[in-house]
TrEMBL record, chain A:
The keyword Transferase does not apply. It is a multi-pass membrane protein. The chain crosses the membrane at residues 12-31, 98-121, 133-153, 173-192, 271-299. One of its GO terms (cellular component) is plasma membrane. Gene3D superfamilies: MetI-like. PANTHER family: DIPEPTIDE TRANSPORT SYSTEM PERMEASE PROTEIN DPPB-RELATED. This is Peptide/nickel transport system permease protein. It comes from Actinophytocola algeriensis.
UniProtKB/TrEMBL annotation, chain B:
GO terms for biological process: peptide transport; transmembrane transport. Residues 12-255 form the ABC transporter domain. InterPro entries: AAA+_ATPase, ABC_transp_ATP-bind, ABC_transporter-like_ATP-bd, ABC_transporter-like_CS, Oligopep_ABC_C, P-loop_NTPase. This is Oligopeptide transport system ATP-binding protein. Belongs to the ABC transporter superfamily. GO terms for molecular function: ATP binding; ATP hydrolysis activity.
From TrEMBL, chain C:
It comes from Actinophytocola algeriensis. PROSITE patterns: ABC_TRANSPORTER_1, ABC_TRANSPORTER_2. This is Oligopeptide/dipeptide ABC transporter ATP-binding protein. Keywords: ATP-binding, Cell membrane, Membrane, Nucleotide-binding, Transport. PANTHER family: DIPEPTIDE TRANSPORT ATP-BINDING PROTEIN DPPD, OLIGOPEPTIDE TRANSPORT ATP-BINDING PROTEIN APPD. GO terms for molecular function: ATP binding; ATP hydrolysis activity. InterPro entries: AAA+_ATPase, ABC_Ni/Peptide_Import, ABC_transporter-like_ATP-bd, ABC_transporter-like_CS, Oligopep_ABC_C, P-loop_NTPase.
Automatic annotation (TrEMBL), chain E:
Residues 96-285 form the ABC transmembrane type-1 domain. It is a multi-pass membrane protein. It comes from Actinophytocola algeriensis. Its main location: membrane. This is Peptide/nickel transport system permease protein. GO terms for biological process: transmembrane transport. Pfam families: BPD_transp_1, OppC_N.
Amino acid sequence: MITFLRRRIVSSAIPLVFVVLGVFVLARLTGDPVNLYLPLSATEEQRAEFAAAHGFDQSILAQLWDYLGQVVRLDFGESLRTGQPAGEMVLTAFPATLQLAAVTMLIAIVGAVLIGSLAAYRPNSLADRVASFLSMTAASIPDFWFAIMGVLVFGVSLDLLPTSGVDGGAEVWVLPIATLLIRPFGVLVQVVRGAMVGALSAPYVKVARSKGASEKRVVFGHALRNATMPALTVAGDLTIGLVNGAVVVETIFGWPGIGKLMIDSILQRDFAVLQAAVLLTAVTIFVLNIVIDICYALIDARVRQPVAA
Amino acid sequence: MLEVNVTAPPVLEATGLRKTFRVGRKHLTALDGVDLRIGRGETVGLVGESGCGKSTLARVLLMLARPDDGTVRFGDVNPFALRGKELLAWRRRVQMVFQDPYASLNERMTAADIIGEPWRTHRDAAPADRRARVRELLELVGLRAGDADRYPGEFSGGQRQRIGIARALALNPDLIVCDEPVSALDLSVQAQVLNLLAELQRELGVSYLFISHDLSVVRHVADRVSVMYLGKVVEEGPTEEVFDRPVHPYTAALMSAAPTLTPDRGDPILLRGEIPSPLDPPSGCRFRTRCWKATDECATPPPVVARDSRHTGLCHHPL
Amino acid sequence: MSEPSMSATALSVEGLRVDLHTPGGVLRAVDDVSFAVRKGRTLALLGESGCGKSLTAQSIVGLLDPIAEVTGGAVHIGGTDVLTLDHAGRRELAGPVLSIVFQDALTALNPVQPVGRQLAEPFRIHKGLSRRAAKAEAVELMARVGIPEPKARYRAYPHQFSGGMRQRLLIAMAVALGPDVLLADEPTTALDVTVQAQIMRLLSDLQSERDMAVVLITHDLALVAEQADDVAVMYAGNVVETGPVREVFDHPRHPYTKGLLDSVPEHAVKGAALPAVPGSPPELSAIPSGCVFQARCPLATARCADERPRLEPSGDGRATACHFTEELSRA
Amino acid sequence: NSEAGDAGAGGDTLRIVLAQEPPTLEPCESSLTGTGMVVRSNITEPLIERDPATGALEPLLSTGWRQTSPTTWTFDIRSGVTFQDGQPFTAEDAAFTIDRAVNSDLMCNVDGYVFDDSPLGLHVDSPAKLTVTTEKPDPILPLRLSFVEMVPRTTDTGAKVREPVGTGPYAIADWQTGVSITLTRNDTYWGDAPAYPRVRYVWRSESSVRAAMIAKGEADMSTGLDPEDATPENSVAYPNNETTALRLDGTQAPLDDIRVRKAIGLAIDRQAVVDVLFDGNAEPAAQLIPDGVVGYNDALKPAPADLDGARQLVREAKDDGAPVDREITLVARNGQFPRVAETAEVLQYSLGQIGLNVKILMTDTAAHLVYQLRPFPRDVGPVALLIMHGNQAGDAGFTTSQYLLSDGPQSYFGTDALDDMITDADQLSGDARQQAFADIFAHQNAEVAQYAYLAHMQGLMGMSPSVHYEPNPATGDELRLAEIRPADGDAR
Amino acid sequence: MTATVKKEAAAEPAVKRRRHTWWQLLGKDRFAAVAAVVLGLVVLTAVLGPWLIGDRAVRQDLRASLQPPSFDHGFFGLLGTDVLGRSVLARLVEAAGTTLSVAVPAVLCSLVIGSAIGMWAGYHGGWRESLAMRVADVILSFPSLLLAVVVLYVFAPSAANIVLILAFARIPIYLRTARAESAELRTRLFVDAARTFGTKSWPTIYRHLLPIVLPTLLTVATLDFCFVMLSESSLSFLGIGIQPPDVSWGLMVAQGRQYLQTAWWIAVLPGVAIVLTTVSATILAAWARLAGDPAQRWRLTAAKRRRGAVAGVTA
Ligand SMILES: Nc1ncnc2c1ncn2[C@@H]1O[C@H](COP(=O)(O)OP(=O)(O)OP(=O)(O)O)[C@@H](O)[C@H]1O
Ligand SMILES: Nc1ncnc2c1ncn2[C@@H]1O[C@H](COP(=O)(O)OP(=O)(O)OP(=O)(O)O)[C@@H](O)[C@H]1O
Ligand SMILES: [Mg+2]
Ligand SMILES: [Mg+2]
Ligand code: NI
């Protein structure tokens, strides 16, 4: 396990470098931030001065070299927009996103497993049709719609929930999570259903029934674990999507997360923050991938020990 | 098609094959210096305990696995050195019938697709001819032409196995490695299939490596037999010789354990103990942990005992 | 073998019919299968591959693929017709009363569960044992079927066992609760003879210990000869002959049985062609209305084409479905 | 956070929802809308303030000022004013602040925005008197200085500060990054105490959410609502000094033909756009500045749409060889104003109808700036840029130097005549100044036609019935908390 | 007993095994048939629609702004008008083409590229697998929005560029799914069998892996189809999506979002179009999954009562 982890971590480091390089170069392709940060009437000298102060006057390679040097010392530079250290800004914003993503995925996975299994139990039955139809509809509703309707209906008309914001009790979580949930939930229901249809017709399911196992035991004890692999892959991708930022939710509900920060820093050409944010999410995603690999190994021993005597 | 020298007597000659698998930190020696020789038009039986390496040997011969050591020669070519066209031409000469009729057929393909796949790879028969030839093959192995469009899932275990056999026959190979080809078949079909194999041998000079647990079948079809135990060939010789006058105690135990229709056979030799783990096999003679004749001497590598020039065994205490 | 209990019937199948709902229409794969097994005895179910043996076994345990459906007949175990039971009723029987070893050994174990857990499951389900107690039972069972170091292997996964070991685990699972009736569908096909001998010994032991009735499905006539008491020969979904093994083998009364016995390689001259029943069984979609074997039968007459012979008991514990039973039994 | 649950009754706390979180509260950045909204005249104060309605300059921290020579101005500093940290405010601080904002390397936004590059000379005559000298005569220096918010001497000169200390009626109590900013009433404030002891800012970028918060009672006031979210109950409209127009690149064919440029002006149905897209919250425009700004020409009236006339002009140009089929890029910025995309589509459609070939390019702010500022991008063909110009200073001089000079930073082209008029007008003051600039706008429309005007815009401020506030043209950039009181009038 | 009953059956020639054509299988599943019809209509609309509506989709009439759906304003007024007085119906029709011409190529590109690489990596294992997975990691952890902003600003927001970005960003999804399944399949015996008669890696992938992996990929693709349409909408929202006067459902939703309270039909109708299309695609994918799997196909052909059956569970 230790060697496995070590190998994974080492092999992840190289892509991480690519991500850093890619973001650095791409960010600079979006254009010069000088105009954004200097008043419209700024003179040539002022612009040059600004560029020099932030290193934009150097060649991109030189900038990159400097940046890498800083990153190695865990210095991510300063935000052009707020003047704060970029690393600090990113670290402040990240937990909010992470919490949201974690709770959402937890609910999505549990719910999708239950409903997906139910649907797969009798494929093409009415229950299956209804579950598939509803979950798909949920997945194809534009999230900003859902969010705004949620605010208007539950926040204003019914007056049940706060419209937005982060401080307050559990109720402030309801709408953001519901908004984030619909798509992963719909997708996962479909995936779990597909995998369960296969797993439930496997021979070992028959064997379990021949032992007199109850249907609950058959479905959740035997079939489900076999159906977890594809679901896990997809759940991983969905989680990555959420970690990369729930832009809509964060924007609409004023949730101070990394997605909004990233969008703002792209639109504001705030390179230092963008780079720090991407680096942090990339690291998180790599960790997540490793966790998923470990989950694979935990779920399926064949991954762990390919063959033994 | 590339014609390789067909006059040389052995179709296949394998010497000193070794194959180890890494299992965690350990090495599992599935084949430990196996020699095998199959002549043209000959059937060699391969028997042995389950897990002794028979399928692994078959996989190495088919180049599904690369041996760690040892050489394989077909005629005068070393298949592992072949590339491109030549390799494809060689592939056509050697085919395999797999042990597990459930896993070796793609559930999504119809019987016709499965049987016709070799032709697709080799761009052989025109699609129109293929159907006719598929029918022919299906009938050859005792299925019906109408089964061509059915999927493996709709066949019983035995019927599946026959599809596997038909597929192996599709390219008219020189050598077919049969890994338990008939164990899933009932006697009557088994008889049909064995007759078919024999007929092909007579007419086309096909050679077989015939892996089976059913000793009566091996005895019927094989010209020579090799007996394997834990990755080593412990006895080898002409079938009748080996069956009637075994050298190695394991061979004897095997023979006596086989059920027969005649009820009045002698008491079977009951082996004690478990099959040792191939991860750390016993030193010296590998059978010594279960052998009723074992002595301390058996902890050293056993000598080759030759009953006659063609019948040899590896044992300290030959019978 | 002549215990007093031998007369008690453990399992009787009467007129079992199974239909397959294939895309091409409804096919009758099993048609009028009847046989009975007494306590402590073994019945071998023989027959051409594809004749419906596995379907018969699966319909007895109620685990047919959804495509198949039992459309007639009765299966009595201890006085109840299990075909009429509801799901819960079946569950109660499955394990302690009736169990099955499936033909497809390599995939029948759940690949993601430790085998020990799977072995302990019957104890947990039916005896309500605690995890630990069930584990103890399972370990004992593993030892019983000859798995070395069962304690250590309890936590191992199926892929870590060889085919033979997996087959033994399946058998262990099936006999865990000492069922009254065990259906074994080709339990030793994947095994070499030494292991096969071990397993058969194990089955005999359990059988005499618990008075278990065994239905052994196999192609190995030699094994049948050694292991079984009675035999039922199937052909194209029908039972064509039943009776005590020795008698059937020595004096087959159905042309198919006779053909089958003739194909044994043991009897054949080495190198010569094996005598085989010519032709192949009828397609399920075109089962003839008369005798199912007529197309391949050397004795077939016009009568065979019109009238299907019923399985007629002939008084001596045997029964045959053939218009020529008389002639054959005299021969 | 104790305010957390305080979403209910309003009570002591005035709750304001902004469109965005201020990037910083540094006072020298207060010409940025996001920052100025919170900071200006609430946390810090300038020496002089401009009455947004009348444009008149009013004393604040400076009680009086006069021009003692063409390049020298003297300011009297109010006494008895203390900063929120207890230090007294003196001329020393004023000099420090101006020096920090204008002469330092901090690159403050005010620096480039209201001052040009020449340094200011600062001299503290006494704690109550400050003298400022300029290199060139600057008639509107006091106006410029109204953008400089006073901070104490102790403020960092090397870096911008995020949470400043000022003399204003409110002090920063708490800034939870990403969540909220809370201000508390400054009890040592020199002026009248404001009504609310506490103010809490939050931010939501969706207009409909801001409207929902007002409706629900989670917020008392909100900045900029979109027209469709605004109702008379939850909002008030106010002119915000912003003017929208198309800036036409007269250096590129076919826009180099004045007939084509004039045709574009004729093709736009301003009234319909105002009525339908802006829900009536705007005025059709005929010049770049609204009424109230020095230089406004009240003789210029927006022309009604005249498609036939426009077509005629285009046809004439075409007959003279102008390549009217050449694709013109209409560049607009997302979020520039509510319904900007629809506006662009209307413009495109109208111009299509008079025989021009227009393509829309919607951009983000940064990309828009590339088109907006010199040096203009090359190889992009003729561009019609949708601009929104806000003259917050109240003097046309700010507009003309940027938008009308032939080499103005935001001007495609001009004429020598216009340039001369602008240079001259800049030296004038009083009525002469007003008249000179009014002439300039008339001249531009008749002879240059770089701009096809759309509308003088209005802002929509979300406001719950429980508060009382009268927005003014500056409300889009600053929100004076001291002017807000509970609707029933009883301050707490 | 049955001898007489069977008589007529035997008289007939052996029943030919009936292979259902795809059409028949589709007919057996009413939901799938409806879904297919809906998709067909959408495609038809996309192809023929523009020709039917002329310039209605761009014709503005500010005096007819925000008319609710009604029968009073002729055919094109049926679904109301948008803020510029354009017929929502005409715009929906016009948008169908744009939407499909962005979403379909984007999904297809990422599907084809992602699955090909994924299956290749999974089939070969070893360094190819690691390489492919790490590349997927890089793409996944890249903010796709940044990519969008760059490509669209550097290379102008053309439909082709939008397709490019959407396709690129979704490649890892297919790559990872295909790889996971292929890695398991490569150990199957039938793959070995193909190797024994010399089938090269790509034909093996095509013949053996693809048919098994495809149903899963199709499910993912239909879900992605919806995702791509919504992403295109977000791009529109940022102003780097489809440029007016072209119109897509995503653009309509993004622009109409502001009118949710006042003029629901502007945003809701294109939303419904998206939902209908994706739900139909999913239903069809689920059907294809059954129809393409010989072990499950009977669920479509068997009697209604049996379709939902579960092995060993008495109904
Ligand atoms: N890929 C592999 N990795 C590790 N060990 C393997 C692998 N393949 C086979 N083995 C081991 O090699 C040994 C020989 O296996 P092989 O399949 O050749 O046996 P066999 O003689 O064919 O048995 P059977 O008669 O049961 O088919 C077994 O112990 C098996 O567990
Ligand atoms: N899912 C299915 N679809 C179509 N036909 C099927 C299906 N399952 C079984 N059959 C058919 O039913 C018949 C009986 O099958 P069954 O599995 O009972 O045979 P068997 O006697 O067990 O054969 P074997 O000894 O080869 O295992 C066969 O002809 C088979 O083709
Ligand atoms: Mg093997
Ligand atoms: Mg069977
Ligand atoms: Ni009965």
